[in-house]
Amino acid sequence: MQRLSAYRFELMPKGKQQRQCAQFAGVKRYIYNKALALQQTNYAQGNKYLSYASIAKHLSPWRNDPLAPWLKEAPFHTQQQALKDLDCAYSNFFKGLSDFPKPKRKGLHESFRFPDPKQIQFDQTNSRIKLPKLGWMRYRNSREVSGELRNVTISQSGGKWFMSIQTQMEVDQPIPEGVDAVGIDVGIANFAALSNGIFIAPLASFKKHEQRLAKYQRRMSHKVKFSNNWKKEKAKVNRIHSDIANARKDFLHKTTTTICKNHALVCIEDLQISNMSTSSKGTIENPGKNVKAKSGLNKAILDQGWGEFRRQLEYKMAWNGGMVIAVPPQYTSQTCPNLQCGHIAKENRKTQSRFKCVSCGYENHADTVGSINILERGLRLLACGDPMPLDRSVKQEPTETTFDALAA
């Protein structure tokens, strides 16, 4: 089987190379926004959507425009990739996977990609890489890269430049190291509860840095926008955001690696995170309720990184020869896991952490009960394709942490 892998390294560009990277990222952003404006104008005139092949014909005239001579200074392939990114964004929108494409803003997700491996020279021995129009650049060689190089993406984060190298390699069909199956119930008070009784404490990286972040954001708001002092404070804010994201990624990678190495089957809830973290502000005519508490709950949900947790579980289990099954999340913490009972009632969950069945008296931690039910539904789905035999109307359960708990 073929395996695609990505390796991320910090670049050490020289002064001129830093300016070129910023310029190339700006050119990519300009081409993306210009193509998006063309698509919107075309749609407003009642015409059909322009495919990548159709819109790519405009790239050469744009590059030859005497009013924008700086477009020719950037590599041609990186500009083609901007059009492909826009085409992918439209495709995801049509499939209902994302919102309508928006114009890219300066300073947010600055990046550009070199898709042709023939134009790239990668020298791991001397910790350097040669890219079109950038020349040789040093990088912090923190790990060995395996496989055939496919493409390189240059991006900026926290005032630093990074490169992501995608490789492809042929590997044998893996056999899982672990033989056990486990159900995982994610939450806020406990990041994850496993059906074997293990609890994983939350990292809550944003919560740990929230006060420090707010301090520098207030300082930045008191500066004249785009002044030198404002830029200094903005750089500090960006560094804090990078620290938060890096800590969260490190925690998730270590957690998912441990789970995938020790299990052959992982069952999780099919959570609709975007719906769970939707704002409750409402409108002027219909204002929302408990807005402050719901805002704190949304912040806590997004701080956990459940979506990234699931993504990492899925590809790591596939790499290890295992399987991930997502099951409906309805009533997992309100259903008695006793096979002779199976009673469903909200009264079963006495508190956030305590579960006691009002029918048979079964007692356990509520999160553990949820993970046991998730595992049972996953095994049933794997065996016969029937995830949950419920006769009642189903709704997604609220997150384990209530408004009152967050307010406290």
How does the SSE layout of this entry go?
Blueprint: E1 2-12, H1 15-44, H2 52-56, H3 59-63, H4 76-94, E2 111-114, E3 121-123, E4 128-131, E5 135-139, E6 148-157, E7 160-170, E8 180-186, E9 192-194, E10 199-200, H5 205-221, H6 228-262, E11 263-269, H7 273-276, H8 291-304, H9 306-319, E12 323-327, E13 354-356, E14 363-365, H10 366-384, H11 403-407
Parallel strand pairs: 8-11, 11-12
Antiparallel strand pairs: 1-5, 1-7, 2-6, 3-4, 4-5, 6-7, 8-9, 9-10, 13-14
Helix pairs in contact: 1-4, 5-6, 6-9
Provide a short characterization of the protein structure.
This protein is of the alpha+beta class and 408 residues long. Helix content is 41%, strand content 19%. The strands form 3 sheets. Strands 2-6-7-1-5-4-3 form a 7-stranded antiparallel beta sheet. A 5-stranded mixed beta sheet has the order 10-9-8-11-12. Strands 13-14 form a two-stranded antiparallel sheet.
Largest sheet: 7 strands, antiparallel
Q: SSE order in H/E notation?
A: EHHHHEEEEEEEEEHHEHHHEEEHH
Q: What oligomeric state is this?
A: single chain
The total strand number stands at 14
**Percentage of residues in helical conformation:** 40-55%
* Average pLDDT, all residues: 90
Strand ordering within the main sheet: 2-6-7-1-5-4-3
Radius of gyration: 25 Å
Stretches where pLDDT falls below 50 for ≥5 residues?
390-408
Silhouette: globular
Broad structural category: alpha+beta
Our count of helices gives 11
Beta-strand residue fraction: 15-25%
Write a structural description.
The protein is α+β, with helices and mostly antiparallel strands. Helix content is 41%, strand content 19%. A seven-stranded antiparallel β-sheet has the order 2-6-7-1-5-4-3. A five-stranded mixed β-sheet has the order 10-9-8-11-12. A hairpin with a 4-residue loop joins β9 and β10. It is globular, with a radius of gyration of 25 Å. The model is unreliable at 390-408 (pLDDT under 50).
